[in-house]
Amino acid sequence: MESTNGLVTDAEIKSFFDSAPPLRDRVGIANKLKEFIQLNSASQGNGSARRVVCVTSGGTTVPLEQRCVRYIDNFSSGHRGATSTEYFIKAEYAVIFLYRRGSCQPYCRSLPEDPLLECFEFTNGSNVQVRQSCSEAVRRAINDHHAAVAAGHLLKLPFTTIFEYLQILQMIAISMRNLGPHAMFYLAAAVSDFYVPWKDMAEHKIQSASGPLDMRLVQAPKMLSVLRKEWAPMAFCISFKLETDSKILLEKADMALKKYKMHMVVANELVTRNEEVIVVTADKKIPVCRDKTQPGSDVENPLIELLVEKHSAHIKDADT
Amino acid sequence: MESTNGLVTDAEIKSFFDSAPPLRDRVGIANKLKEFIQLNSASQGNGSARRVVCVTSGGTTVPLEQRCVRYIDNFSSGHRGATSTEYFIKAEYAVIFLYRRGSCQPYCRSLPEDPLLECFEFTNGSNVQVRQSCSEAVRRAINDHHAAVAAGHLLKLPFTTIFEYLQILQMIAISMRNLGPHAMFYLAAAVSDFYVPWKDMAEHKIQSASGPLDMRLVQAPKMLSVLRKEWAPMAFCISFKLETDSKILLEKADMALKKYKMHMVVANELVTRNEEVIVVTADKKIPVCRDKTQPGSDVENPLIELLVEKHSAHIKDADT
After folding, report:
1. A317 CB neighbour count, 10 Å cutoff
2. In this model, does residue B43 exceed pLDDT 90?
3. What value of ipTM does the predicted structure carry?
4. Is A145 on the interface with B (CB under 8 A)?
5. Given a cut of 60, is residue A38 above it in pLDDT?
6. Looking at the partner chain, which of A6, A213, A243 has a beta carbon nearest the beta carbon of B210?
7. Contacts of B110 in chain A (CB under 8 A)
8. Which residues form the DNA/pantothenate metabolism flavoprotein C-terminal domain (chains A, B) (predicted)?
9. What is the pLDDT of residue B67?
10. How much is the pTM?
């Protein structure tokens, strides 16, 4: 069933979606998407529609049992996706934020680990009160977040498993197709490379007998090429490559660019990912660093600036 | 190296701890433990010391790579441990809550998934305000939680990996040894049965080549018998058995009771675990159900009542 060039075949895609457990609340998600895209693709008064970006964030899980007790998880705090969402909204994009449940949320990254217990206290009148040290972080989290949602510029859709992630991504991409080159995909989620097909999975908890546990995982179908070719062929697409070994990073990013026909691949190394990334395009490798003269500055600030500029060029190219 | 009766050997334990990555802030944890146990083991005015229970909660992770990108996780919300902690504190125990980062916290279980964004809003004076619908849940979370910590009745220690979990559990158990029969272990955490020894682990991210991924995990050493035999031999010990298949549940609970010399094993099935459990002892199987005539009642309420009563008997037995 595997194609010879390493790309996913139609049969593999069909088999993945056919065998996946059905998505809960598919209709609700479809309605939210339709409404969000209608709202933001309408002319904004100045004759041009708002651009829409789908930001994916956090890691997917791969269940090892149907009644899930054990699963394989991909580490990702979701910090990159959450921070980038803030900068996209600042740059007047509408953002569909497809995020792992429990991962970092836009406008919330300066909060402590357990904000409710660490940022609030009761006064004698039994009124809840924000601690002085947290007040700016709490204001940003509640106020800016609510403002973005209320204005219709931020739609949040959660996932946990790779099955949920790919099914919702497909729905988003197909509903963004009509936006043509005004759509962007910023695929920062850490998607599992391997999975256990639902039908091959143990129904019950795997028993720990006396021996070791041998597991065979198969390659998860890479949906990037399908997204580019079929789901939203006019959209501007950026994927991410994370490695812990800097020696193979750029080579792997380059391979992903060509194989999946991405417009750009953001290459990042685990330990330095909040300091700098390298944006790999067909003809250039562009290093992007955070402004080290500014305390608390983010690498996402110049990164999103660069991407918005390249997206503008992509739209201009498509129009001519 | 494996012993013939399926129990863990001294060499296996030594090898696990020797090869584990060193615990961060070991000294800080040791100091907190010492202070907490001193405070609570001092006579409470009425001549008797407070009993101390170690509640473990949430699932452990097993890293698949040393610079961890991928790991295997055990599903556990931590609801059981968090709720039980509240009832133990109500029953005048001091609780050492050894919990998985991000899992459910005591006094917080009625909160929505993202309390900061869902429970608060800004008023025009830019004062933060609790939404009416959440006010009781927020009051409980902040007030009761802070009260328990401030009174010195609740010490919270977080873990993520199985390496952190077992290292901290060992420290807790050894520091509770002097409490003799007044100490209790309530081991509700979902600990991985399998793991990859740190030294066998890939240093870098496992590459997704063209084939399937074959993995071999070895059995994690079961520390329960060591806890009973060496770390805290006088303590009252309760472990948990969760299965998705009710047919094998009681048999497995019984086996665990005998093999690890637990005083009790709480048997629970995945789908009904919030409605009822069965407490397995050497001579009885005691079903414990939540009070269905009371809306919002917990199975942990009668469960902790039963355990406190059995713990009293254990202390009396030891004293005579």
Report:
1. 9
2. no
3. 0.79
4. yes
5. yes
6. A6
7. none
8. 170-274
9. 67
10. 0.86
Mean pLDDT (chain B, rounded) = 89
Distance between B15 CA and the closest CA of chain A, angstroms: 17
Asked whether residue A205 carries a pLDDT value surpassing 90, the answer given is no
Tell which residue, B39, B52, B113, has the closest CA to residue B85.
B52
- B286: contact with A, CB 8 A cutoff: no
Sign of CA dihedral B273, B158, A191, A89: positive
What pLDDT is recorded for position A66? Answer: 72
- pLDDT higher than 70, residue B25: yes
A residues 233-272 closer than 8 Å to B (CB)? 242-245, 270
For A127, residues 6+ apart whose C-beta sits below 8 A from its C-beta are none
The answer to whether residues A206 and A213 touch, using CB atoms and an 8 Å cutoff, is yes
User: Which structure tokens are listed for A243?
Assistant: 């490695």
Task: Give the other-Cβ count within 10 Å of A287's Cβ.
Answer: 9
Mutate to test the interface with B, among A113, A244, A251 (most CBs of B within 10 A): A244
B71 and A72 within 8 Å at the Cβ level: the answer is: yes
Question: Which of B110, B142, B218 best tests the A interface by mutation, with the highest count of A CBs <10 A?
Answer: B142
Band the pLDDT of B45: cuts 50, 70, 90: low
Residue, of A177 and B197, whose pLDDT is higher:
A177
* Whole-number Å distance between alpha carbons of B205 and A245: 8
